Amino acid sequence: MNDRVHLKDLKLPQELATLSIPQCEQLCREIRKIIISTVLKNGGHLSSSLGTVELTVAIHRVFRSPADKIVWDVGHQSYTHKLLTGRLKDFSKLRKEDGISGFCRPDESEHDAFISGHSSTAISAAFGMAEAMRLDGDRHHAIAVIGDGAFTGGLAYEGLNNAGKSSDNIIVILNHNDMSISKNVGAFAKYLTSIRRNSAYLDVKKKTEKILENMPIIGEPVKKFIKTSKSALKSVLYHSTMFEDMGFVYLGPIDGHNIAELEEALRAAKKLRHPVFVHVNTVKGRGYSPAEINPGEFHAISAGGYNAESFNNISFSNVFGKKLAEFADNDRNICAITAAMKYGTGLQNFAVKHGERFFDVGIAESHAVTFAAGLAKQGKLPVFAVYSSFLQRSYDQLIHDVAIDGSHIVLGIDRAGFVGEDGETHQGLFDVPMLITVPNTVIYSPSTYSELEMCLDCALYHTNGIAAVRYPKGTENITIEAENVDSYLLTGNGGKRLAISYGRIVHNLYTAAGDCDVLKLVKIFPVDEEVLDICMDYSEIYFFEEGIKTGGAAETLLAELYEKGYRGKFVIKAVDGFVKQAPVESCMKKYGFDKDSMCELLGTNRSEMIET
Amino acid sequence: MNDRVHLKDLKLPQELATLSIPQCEQLCREIRKIIISTVLKNGGHLSSSLGTVELTVAIHRVFRSPADKIVWDVGHQSYTHKLLTGRLKDFSKLRKEDGISGFCRPDESEHDAFISGHSSTAISAAFGMAEAMRLDGDRHHAIAVIGDGAFTGGLAYEGLNNAGKSSDNIIVILNHNDMSISKNVGAFAKYLTSIRRNSAYLDVKKKTEKILENMPIIGEPVKKFIKTSKSALKSVLYHSTMFEDMGFVYLGPIDGHNIAELEEALRAAKKLRHPVFVHVNTVKGRGYSPAEINPGEFHAISAGGYNAESFNNISFSNVFGKKLAEFADNDRNICAITAAMKYGTGLQNFAVKHGERFFDVGIAESHAVTFAAGLAKQGKLPVFAVYSSFLQRSYDQLIHDVAIDGSHIVLGIDRAGFVGEDGETHQGLFDVPMLITVPNTVIYSPSTYSELEMCLDCALYHTNGIAAVRYPKGTENITIEAENVDSYLLTGNGGKRLAISYGRIVHNLYTAAGDCDVLKLVKIFPVDEEVLDICMDYSEIYFFEEGIKTGGAAETLLAELYEKGYRGKFVIKAVDGFVKQAPVESCMKKYGFDKDSMCELLGTNRSEMIET
Question: What is the DSSP letter of B502?
Fold first, then answer.
């Protein structure tokens, strides 16, 4: 019964339930070893995954995936889940091209109940599943596992508000580690921490026993019991929590690293035919001391084992953050906003120098934009630094709260273009076609650090409405740059063939252009009359766009040129559909943005290429 | 002191503060009369505005707009505010072309602190203003007035979560009428109602006195007092509410029709230098008995005094709802979802027939889509009926939670195109360019009822991924229709000139086309090869699009045709920028979609026109 067990010898997840607690603990140690060594090699989310090892084991002992649906919010804490559901063999290919994803992917395993990557979606998705089960008379459970950081997102609350009123088979497990990516913020976080510290909640065993004692038969009588004795339950067993106010039975806080305690709570949750909220305390980075001591540093790790987000190596993000802080030295109106990405967006410097004007709003991109609009109405100059793919959550706020009224806000759009190993959910390919539809918006796409600085200046002081500056993850790769961000750099000999692009892929274009002239756009939308006039002089145009084709900058430029009478060749090379995880270079090749593909399209000979 | 006063004789809002309570009450009666007579004539939001008459008067007596910022959530309850801030004279032109807006518009008055129209934005915007004030050392207040319905939207919660942790000059006033547009839903609504009914909260006078007794000086000592005695305050004066858990001082519930009581609470809120949450109970429709008895019916009223949303006259919405309910008779997997728009989207029939499968999620469009994705993962066929402009809130959820995983959901996009009197915030002009960027999406745009039925069939059973069916407000205006929604109807004599359009404006096109052939698109994106081939046969193409031009269907079609070698004339007539309130016919004229403008563009003679 207490024999040593190994992941590879077990039929998982079924056989988990047959193990003793010591065997489970031993398995957890093995799992932690695998996660640590893999993530230090491949990169990935270390702290979150180390925090949920015991919780995941307990969930798979109590519930039967895939009949029971486990929905991991964000998904970056699901590595243990992956190891327990058939992906041990391929785990060394975590986040690799053609390997397994760093998030949950239903097309990867039937045990990944829902796609994940963006935050705060799990309750809504699990509730949809739970309601479908109710309609089908299916008595299994839908279980949302969601961190306290994700609770700063309004979607989590919308889900809770709907799920709490139902009398259904939904269980929400709060993975409470007091962190989102940076230190968690907001009133709700404070509130959770106040519960976390409340020892009166701790003796889950006694509490669940007491609940179950009073429930001779499961089903209707239980529901009735809960209904009639709710206030009694509340006042005797617990004091009221917000989650009970929202209609859930609250169990917790549970020690998230004690398998026996976790199981007891989960079994109780399973028996209650009512929405249940299980509050689990975990330690982010548990079992790997550098990550326990500084979980923020080890939130997302790049391949090779260092954390790209926090180190002070030069990158577009850090250049942006540093320059913004400099502008703010001389302009007291500048305010910086981040949605839980202080380090990721390079704002740590600003936060230190201008703490009063630095706002980390939590994972709440919609709020960030409306909040910025409020600041702008009072004469402030708000700058929201955000990853391209997360800005998708602010589309309505940009249109409704900013653009209609013509307020001036600046967007620092980070991770624009391919992001590499994070895959489909995180690609920054939609911001351009999205923003092109928003009136009163200007989009800059610098390809060097000094262009980025010029664009930021322009966005702050020489643009009205929404001024977006977008830049990729990582470092600059060329130094050929426009002197005037407003709006382009034309290089070449005045031939009849023109290659157009923007952002970092201009680098490859310079090396591939041969006898083609190259037009590097810095202001990519709207395009100035001058740029249109330049294009009109050519009879062949090739537009390379590291973004979604339909509705993108190239299509819109074509429409403008067409109106002016352009009838020459116009070839668009852009992205169609979703882009799977792979190194950025590999994505470049796949979508035709590498030197060779460009040469082929342009019909230029590799020998003609200029090296930059 | 108690002489009769009249709105027109007062210098407002300043002189409000000099009036006695009876004078205020008299003024409220006058205001109600004006609102009722105007709305019955011009259309507008009656119930909401009647519910906030006393509250608005009290706010303007206690605070000094525009130095104090009053942010009305949604804005449809701001008619009294408009009458008190210089718009009495123009009030007869409420919602008229060139008249005053039915929502708040900063370009209309300095007293309209923030744009409104969409729900749940007020707390975020007001908090932005409050933080700007803090940075500027400005001791005025930012006051968000928000209904309980708007609290079902996650953005309100994101705002609350941020505002509650600040030590700032923000006041949130909950206008609690137990209704959103239809009956309010969700756990939070239940919770609010439980507080509303709690008589222990009612004696506000005693409570505020007790608070103030203990606060000799306002400022730091007060903050300290609140901090140290928070639990005492809680347990003695109130019991804990969720809002206190979120960091606010809670005052309420207050009788929202008692000016003296309201003032007292607002003065207390003003003195506290801390985030304050004031819970006000109001009666929607107060003072107009038909609206009090049935506030849902009188939520939005069309010009002429009847409620277009609830009557059973035939409209696209009702045809959609009825047909969907019919499909659901034979298909137990069909589920219908609305975001607080059961009547508006014509789902009332479905709700009655298939109540178990009908989900009103509250004003929570983001959740609606992710919830739909959850249902779809379990084999259900979810249909989310939503107004075009509100779907903008689901952009990320459509991409991330639905499209990447290839789940099949159906969108019934109502109010597509110009909406008329609701103006900029409500125009349905962005859904096409927005959805065109989302991979795995098909967009149908029927122009007749039977096409709508065919499209719905197609979307449910013959399309994968996201299938959107979009249709305008109101009734069909033509009966010339495609037999096969997949995908067009070509009429004409095989000339060289082709006019293309979709949706309702095809009606005008038929009458204006003259010798032009007409291609009516039903599936507008992606366009079939067959349609491209048809276009290639023409040398002049005119595309009329009742939607945003940049990134719209016309530009994308042009790009496709260009790739196939089309070099003929291609003229796009679409919408640029935001469209102000005006009758739909007037918008049509302004943007070139009326018969005359079309004739002019096409160079067709009016005498050539076919009458349909």
Answer: E
CA–CA separation, A485 and A517 (whole Å): 19
Q: Is B212 left (phi over 0), alpha (psi -120 to 50) or beta?
A: alpha
CA distances from B576 to A165, A399, A560, B129, B572 (A): 43, 13, 13, 30, 11
The tokens 């020489």 sit on which residue? Answer: A462
**What is A35-90 written as a DSSP string?**
HHHHHHHH-B-HHHHHHTHHHHHHHHHHS-TTTSEEEESSSTT-HHHHHHTT-STT
* Residue A576 included in any domain: yes
- Six token digits for residue A484: 């005037």
What's residue A39's pLDDT? 96
**CA–centroid distance for B132 within its chain:** 27
Contact yes or no for A136 and B374 at CB 8 A: no
Look up the CATH number of the domain holding residue A15: 3.40.50.970
Q: What is the mean pLDDT of residues B177-196?
A: 68
| Tokens found for residue A411 | 């967007």
Are both A99 and A203 inside the same structural domain?
Answer: yes
For residue A550, give the DSSP letter.
Answer: T
Q: How many domains does chain B have?
A: 3
Instruction: Give the contacts of A42 (CB within 8 A, at least 6 positions apart).
Output: A92, A93, A94, A95, A96, A303, A421
pTM of the model: 0.92
What are residue A541's DSSP bridge partners? Answer: A498, A570
Domain boundary among A470, A502, A536: A470
The more confidently predicted of residues A565 and A297 is A565
Confidence category of residue B304, pLDDT binned at 50, 70, 90: low
A182 has pLDDT over 50: yes
Number of other CB atoms surrounding residue A492 within 10 Å? 16
Taken in order A121, A126, A131, A133, the sign of the CA dihedral is positive
* Of B519, B523, B431, nearest in space to B472 by CA: B431
Digit-coded pLDDT (tens) for A456-512: 999 999 999 999 999 999 999 887 777 765 578 999 888 899 999 999 999 999 999
Would the CB atoms of B185 and A191 count as touching at under 8 Å?
no
Cα(A558)–Cα(A362) distance, rounded to whole angstroms?
40
Query: Are A596 and A532 found together in one domain?
Result: yes
Q: Are residues B330 and B231 in the same domain?
A: no
- Which residue, B252, B274, B275, is CA-closest to B265? B252
pLDDT in tens, A561-572: 999 999 999 999
pLDDT band with cut points at 50, 70 and 90 for residue A183: low
Same domain, A286 and A339: no
Domain carrying residue B123: 7-290
B 41-80 residues with CB below 8 A of A? 69, 71
Catalytic residue among B196, B284, B357, B520: B284
> In chain A, which residues have their Cβ closer than 8 Å to the Cβ of B400?
115, 117-118, 121, 389, 392, 425
User: Is A165 in contact with B158 (Cβ distance < 8 A)?
Assistant: no
- CA B475 to mean position of chain CA atoms: 21
- Position A239 confidence tier, pLDDT thresholds 50, 70, 90: very low
Report CA torsion sign: B555, B557, B558, B562: positive
> Which chain B residue has the Cα nearest residue A245?
B191
Whether B495 and B454 map to the same domain: the answer is: no
